[in-house]
Design brief:
Layout: H1 5-10, H2 14-32, H3 34-56, E1 62-63, E2 66-67, H4 70-80, H5 82-106
Antiparallel strand pairs: 1-2
Helix pairs in contact: 3-4, 3-5
């Protein structure tokens, strides 16, 4: 089956895909800024600490050299889950932004209160 001319134009080169993703990433950072960085840092900390606790609770992680310590094992799992953690950051940051905006606006009264 030979591709039609339309199919050839839809396929993006690696450079074009990279440029598209970087543009989306820059737009995401310009929109959410420090909130995105904070969400990512907190989620990374939660993931890492939960992996440490999981290993200390009895989950065994073995390498070719033998059993590794809790912190080293948690780091290995932490690095293996890097792509889902980044995806989680992109998914939950807009929701957290909306939540913060709602909470900030909830306590405010009308902008022009009427005086009797």
């Amino acid at each position: 089956m030979t591709p039609t001319p339309d199919e050839n134009t839809r396929r993006l080169t690696l450079k074009q895909r990279y440029d598209r993703y970087m543009a989306r990433f820059k737009e995401f950072l310009s929109r959410y800024g420090m909130l995105a960085i904070a969400v990512h840092a907190v989620s990374c900390l939660i993931f890492y600490l939960s992996f440490v606790l999981l290993i200390r609770a009895g989950f065994q992680l073995q390498s070719t050299e033998g059993t590794v310590g809790a912190f080293a094992g948690a780091y290995v799992i932490y690095k293996a889950t890097q792509v889902p953690r980044v995806a989680l950051t992109f998914l939950i940051t807009p929701f957290i932004d909306r939540l913060i905006r709602r909470l900030r606006n909830k306590g405010q009264g009308p902008s022009n209160p009427s005086t009797p």
